[in-house]
Specification:
This protein is mainly alpha-helical. The chain contains 2 helices and 2 strands, in the order E-E-H-H.
């Protein structure tokens, strides 16, 4: 007889079956969607060096702040 594995849901910490669980490692679709929403809102992140695009954006923002929010003072509206 095979022993069924039970794990804790990463969202609500309830024990749930691993086998035959369509939402694993979560206990339910609700917990799965809560976790997905947290990733979508960027509440989670993977540590590492910023990407080149992010570094360029932060440099542009710094330059705009130094110029008083204007990218090109000679441009007309």
């Amino acid at each position: 007889m095979r022993k069924l594995r039970r794990v804790r849901c990463p969202e609500c910490r309830r024990l749930t079956d691993w086998h035959d669980n369509p939402w694993r490692p979560f206990c339910s679709e609700r917990c799965q969607l809560i976790d997905l929403g947290a990733w979508a809102e960027e509440r989670y992140g993977i540590p590492g060096e910023p990407l080149a695009d992010e570094q360029e954006k932060s440099t542009e923002k710094d330059n705009e702040a130094e110029q008083g929010g204007r990218k090109d003072e000679g441009a007309s509206l």
